[in-house]
Specification:
It is a single chain. The protein is an alpha+beta fold and 375 residues long. It contains 11 helices and 11 strands. Strands 1, 2, 5, 6, 8, 9 and 10 form a 7-stranded mixed beta sheet that branches. It has a 4-stranded antiparallel beta sheet with strand order 4-3-7-11. The longest helix is centred in the C-terminal third of the chain and has 32 residues.
C-alpha cells in the first residue's frame, strides 16, 4: 500500500511541474524604414513580463509569484491589455534602444494578445513600438533588462530597394547587443550560427522540453540491451528529423491542436509498453518511429519562430537538430547509467525504477493528452 502511495505522490509532484508554463525568451525585431521611422516588434509572454518571471526560471511555477502569473493568464485579451497600461511605464524603463548613440523614446502603436486558449501554454503577445528619427541611423544597440532574462534580436534596413534581415543575435541574461554598425554590419560567421542554434536546440529539450524528456526516458526504460536501445533511439531520431525538415520546408502542416495531444498520448503509450510482459522490439521500433514523426512537428513549431532565410536555412536546421540530438544523448546516458548503477547493487531495477517510473510517466501522458484535448 505504501508503495502505491509513493507512486501517486510522485505522480502529483511531476504533474505540478509539468503543467507549468515554460518561460521563453523574447524575440525582438527592429525595422528601419526609408522615412526614418523605426519599429520594434517584441514577441513575448506578457504575463511573465508583468510578474517579473524571466528566463532565469525554467517554468513559471519555479517563480515566487507564479500565482500572480496564473491570474493574469486567465484574463481575456482585453482585460490583460488594460492591466498592461499601468505597467507599461515600468517596462519601458527596463528596455533600451539607442540609435546613433542616442536613447530612443518608444511609443506603443499596437498590442496583439492571443485569446486565453489552452492555459498550460504561454500566451503569445506582440508589442509594437515606434519612434521617428531626424537623421538616418548609422548605429543601433538594444538591451533587454536582466529581470526579463534572455532575448533574441534581429533587424532589417531598407537598402538598395529591399529589406534584408540580419542574423539573429542571442542575448543572454540581459546582455546588450553592443553597438551595431548598420551601414557595415558585421555578419555572423557560419560557425557562430552553428553554435548558436546547437545551443537553442539543446535548450529546447533540456531543460524546456518536458514532453520530449519524458518520451525519451520512457523509451530508454524499455530495454538495457544496447542493440535494442540503439534501434529505438535511431528510429526516433530518423523520424523527428524527417518531419522537422518537411515542416520547416512547408511540405507538412498540421495544427498544434492535433500535434500537442498526440505527443502527450505518445508519452503514455511508450511508458505503458514497458509494463507489458511480452514486448516486441519490432513493434516498439515501428511505434517509436511513428511517434517520432509527431515529435518532429513539435520541434518545428518552435524553430519556425526564427523565420530563417534561404541562405542559412540548411545550416540552421542541421544545427538545431544537432542540439536536440545532444540533449537526447544526455538523457539516454543518464537513464542507462542509473539503471546500471542500481543493477550493480544487486537490486531489482525493474521493480525499483522501471515499473514505478513507467506508471508515473504514463499517468502524466494521459493527463496531458486529456487536458490538451479539452483545452
Amino acid at each position: 500500500m505504501s508503495y502505491l502511495i509513493k507512486i501517486i505522490a510522485l505522480f502529483w509532484l511531476l504533474i505540478g511541474v509539468s503543467i507549468a508554463d515554460v518561460v521563453k525568451p523574447a524575440l525582438v525585431e527592429i525595422s528601419i524604414y526609408p522615412d526614418k521611422k523605426v519599429t520594434v516588434v517584441i514577441d513575448l509572454s506578457l504575463e511573465t513580463l508583468m510578474t517579473g518571471i524571466g528566463t532565469q526560471y525554467k517554468n513559471t511555477t519555479d517563480a515566487p509569484n507564479s500565482a500572480q502569473y496564473d491570474t493574469l493568464r486567465s484574463l481575456t485579451a482585453d482585460d490583460l491589455r488594460e492591466q498592461f497600461k499601468t505597467f507599461e511605464t515600468e517596462f519601458l524603463n527596463y528596455i533600451l534602444l539607442t540609435i546613433n548613440e542616442r536613447p530612443q523614446q518608444l511609443t506603443l502603436t499596437s498590442a496583439k494578445i492571443d485569446i486565453v486558449g489552452y492555459k498550460k501554454r504561454p500566451r503569445k503577445t506582440l508589442l509594437t513600438y515606434s519612434t521617428q528619427l531626424k537623421k538616418w541611423p548609422k548605429t543601433l544597440s538594444w538591451q533587454y533588462n536582466k529581470t526579463y532574462g534572455d532575448s533574441a534580436l534581429r533587424y532589417q534596413v531598407y537598402k538598395e530597394g529591399e529589406y534584408n534581415w540580419s542574423q539573429w543575435r542571442w542575448l543572454r541574461n540581459g546582455a546588450t547587443s553592443g553597438m551595431i554598425d548598420i551601414n557595415h554590419p558585421e555578419p555572423i560567421t557560419t560557425m557562430q550560427r552553428i553554435l548558436q542554434f546547437v545551443s537553442i536546440g539543446f535548450d529546447h529539450v533540456i531543460p524546456l522540453g518536458w514532453d520530449h524528456i519524458l518520451f525519451i526516458i520512457g523509451m530508454v526504460l524499455s530495454s538495457m540491451k544496447w542493440r535494442r536501445l540503439l534501434l529505438l533511439v535511431s528510429a526516433f531520431t530518423l523520424a523527428h528529423t524527417l518531419t522537422l525538415g518537411l515542416a520547416m520546408l512547408g511540405i507538412v502542416q498540421i495544427s498544434g491542436r492535433i500535434i500537442e495531444p498526440l505527443i502527450a498520448f505518445s508519452i503514455a503509450y511508450v511508458a505503458i509498453e514497458n509494463l507489458l510482459p511480452n514486448q516486441s522490439i519490432k513493434r516498439k521500433s515501428i511505434i517509436v518511429f511513428l511517434f517520432g514523426l509527431v515529435h518532429g512537428l513539435g520541434f518545428a513549431s518552435m524553430l519556425k519562430s526564427f523565420k530563417m532565410s534561404s541562405d542559412n536555412f540548411l545550416t540552421t536546421l542541421i544545427s538545431f537538430n544537432v542540439g536536440v540530438e545532444l540533449a537526447q544523448i544526455v538523457i539516454v546516458l543518464g537513464v542507462v547509467l542509473l539503471l546500471f548503477f542500481i543493477k550493480s547493487l544487486n537490486l531489482d531495477y525493474k521493480k525499483i525504477v522501471i515499473i514505478p517510473i513507467s506508471i508515473v510517466i504514463s499517468l502524466i501522458g494521459i493527463w496531458w493528452g486529456i487536458d490538451r484535448l479539452i483545452g
